[in-house]
């Protein structure tokens, strides 16, 4: 990535002692973190691009395919958001904001479906038996008199 090389060059220049006095140390830390993040994104993209999309999707069930598509769309739109910001365009006023929100809605729907699959199912028969056996039932009046007659005899 050309941007990563340019950022690395900037970090090398900023690391020199002559310029070090001209900027706060926090900027260097943020730029270092940003460089690492760009490196991670670059590696992720290389991994994703090494396998054809059709080959990848054939190995996944429909829900996993939807997740891959949504994450890809969200990532591309997020990168475009960053690009707009670097060009001086306010991304909050650009249609990309609505697109990101639309993708988030679908991501939440997929999450709900996944959560429903993970949720335990209720066995109504077992629950009914459990509740029935757990409830207190008063003893019949005759049963207590019979029990007392046997105890009273000496």
UniProtKB/TrEMBL annotation:
Transmembrane segments: none annotated. Pfam families: Sas10_Utp3. It is found in: Cytoplasm; Nucleus, Nucleolus. The keyword Cytoplasm applies. Keywords: Cytoplasm, DNA-binding, Nucleus, RNA-binding, rRNA processing. PANTHER family: NUCLEAR NUCLEIC ACID-BINDING PROTEIN C1D, SUN-COR STEROID HORMONE RECEPTOR CO-REPRESSOR. Monomer and homodimer. Belongs to the C1D family. Plays a role in the recruitment of the exosome to pre-rRNA to mediate the 3'-5' end processing of the 5.8S rRNA. This is Nuclear nucleic acid-binding protein C1D.
């Amino acid at each position: 990535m050309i941007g990563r090389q340019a950022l690395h060059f900037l970090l090398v220049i900023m690391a020199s002692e002559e310029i070090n006095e001209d900027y706060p140390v926090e900027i260097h830390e943020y730029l270092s973190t940003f460089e690492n993040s760009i490196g991670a994104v670059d590696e992720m993209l290389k991994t994703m691009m090494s396998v054809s999309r059709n080959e990848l999707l054939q190995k996944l069930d429909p829900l996993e395919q939807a997740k891959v598509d949504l994450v890809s769309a969200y990532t591309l739109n997020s990168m475009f958001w960053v690009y707009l910001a670097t060009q001086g365009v306010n991304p909050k006023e650009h249609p990309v904001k609505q697109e990101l929100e639309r993708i988030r809605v679908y991501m939440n729907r997929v999450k709900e479906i996944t959560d429903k699959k993970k949720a335990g199912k209720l066995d109504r028969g077992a629950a009914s038996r459990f509740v029935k056996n757990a409830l207190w039932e008063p003893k019949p009046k005759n049963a207590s008199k019979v029990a007392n007659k046997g105890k009273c005899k000496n």
